[in-house]
Amino acid sequence: EIISADSRQVYRRMDLGTGKDLDDYCIAGRRVPYHLIDIVEPGTKYNLYRYQHDFLEAFEDIGRRGKRTVVCGGTGLYVESVVRNYNISHVPQNPALRASLEGRTLAELTAELAALKARSGAVLHNTTDVDSCKRAIRAIEIETYNLEREAGRRDFPVMKAFNIGLSIDRDTRRARISARLRQRLADGMLDEVQRLLDEGIAPDDLIYYGLEYKFVTLHLIGQLTYDEMVVQLETAIHQFAKRQMTWFRGMERRGCPIHWIDATAPRDVQLKQLAEVLQLTN
Fold this sequence. Notes:
Layout: E1 2-4, E2 26-27, E3 30-31, E4 34-35, H1 48-64, E5 70-72, H2 76-83, H3 95-101, H4 106-119, H5 133-148, E6 163-167, H6 170-186, H7 189-198, H8 203-208, H9 211-220, H10 226-253, E7 258-262, H11 267-281
Parallel strand pairs: 1-4, 1-5, 6-7
Antiparallel strand pairs: 2-3
Helix pairs in contact: 1-2, 4-5, 6-10, 7-9, 9-10
């Protein structure tokens, strides 16, 4: 059974923008069970702490039924948090800190976050933390909390993971991303975001989710033309895909070997490559 490791596919009715592709979970007429997709309402601030909690519930349920778990997704932090047993603290809001940061520019907040990470020996890699002032303030809040406290951490079990990645050359990846974006626009991605706005989801909440929801919302509220939206969104998705690959390469350097399979190869060739890798590791 599949456990999703995608930070946005947890949201109901956010389908085209998150690329759920639920039809792909049906193979030869058989539905493959999946977990952690469509579990919270739009507007909710879902986070890594909650993901680990929900992951463990699903993982233990699958294990009790004698099934094997496949973790699938593109949010590198979520994937790494379970295969490297991160211990995550629940970080409450800090009103005083938020008040002190109010009014600062995004550049100032980014510099503050980088300085905090440097104190703990870390480097600011995840730029999605700082693509808006709201996100940057929350990231500073978390980093400040972690520097001040070690209590409240939860133990996360060590997972015996076998990691598989799909390798694709840059030009093919870019071409597929561009084609997929245009297809999702044709399939009604703007209508999807408009329905969320009509439900009463605040524009700022949708912008917070980034990428498709950010740029489509900016278009729908009149801050971007359609052409500006498409160009800026396409660029942002290409940049995000590059950051994804950077993250997974970083995982390898941090001790998580990934067995890469050619994403452009025919399915039978991919299965053969996978079988060879499994044979070598057994």
